[in-house]
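Supplementary Note 3. Input sequence used for the single-chain structure prediction.
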Amino acid sequence: MRIVNRRASISTLFGGALSLRAQQQDDIVLRIDVDLVNIAFSVRNKNNALVPSLTKDDFTVFEDGKQQTIKSFTRETDLPLTIGVLVDVSGSQQAMIPEEKHAAGLFFEKVLRQKDMAFLISFGADARLLQDSTNSIRLLKRGLDDLRLNAGVSGIHPGPVPTSKQKGTILYDAVYMAADEKLKSEVGRKAIVVISDGVDYGSEYKLRDAIEKAHKCDTMIYSIYYADPRMYGGFGGGDGDLRKMSEETGGRVFHVSRSNRLEEIFTQIQQEMRSQYMLAYSSSNERKDGGFRKLELRTKDKSLKIQARKGYYAPKQ
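The predicted structure, written as discrete structure tokens, is reproduced below.
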């Protein structure tokens, strides 16, 4: 399965010879990231405020329970970002699309800097690349103008009263493909911001597949739970899957409410991404077996809370 580009598929964009930039990025990944484990993370105090002034000596890192030696430590406010914004446009989200357009446009204006890149994908019955990676806010906003309901009516059920059948919402597929097709060859900090009610119906990939692919592409997932209660009899679709994707990859899940509107959530995300720390270490486990290794970061101040990915996949020989 591929994300459908409104002009051309991603397989078409990348199916031929790779661009010089992509080749250079692949070379960097092979030469550097295989040897160093990089962790981008945020720290908050008991009041849930970001803590920006810690040093290397405030942290210890453990891999599968064994303490590792930190090789480098920085506070990353200016390291380039590559951000994919994934917007649920399935039938259950129809009423929210106008606000999603407005808030996402403001997000692009606030978060993108000269060296940053962003792309835009909508998903419902299928996933569509509305704007490929760009630094142009104008192009990203033009992509937002193309957000359309994608309920995916497919066929008619036979019976006394014929009814249409919905293909569903391919949430897991959209996350998997954004990581695999758009972020795998990128370097630097990478994040997916997904706006959805958390319902998946019809994906070829499973939740675990989407999380594993995000891990392997070194990508954080920020989830925005945005549900129309009228679609679920007064209850949302549930944020369980969104929470799992975010917490395991080092991101967070946010809830849209009257006191925490979508525009405000986008502001919180961009503030967090500009207040991260980055550390790197060489694993004491030299086996290149492709296995999953658990990560744990600790601080001297036990009242602080670290937000970081739960692990990574070792390279294969």
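Confidence is low (pLDDT under 50) at residues 7-34, 154-165. The radius of gyration is 20 Å.
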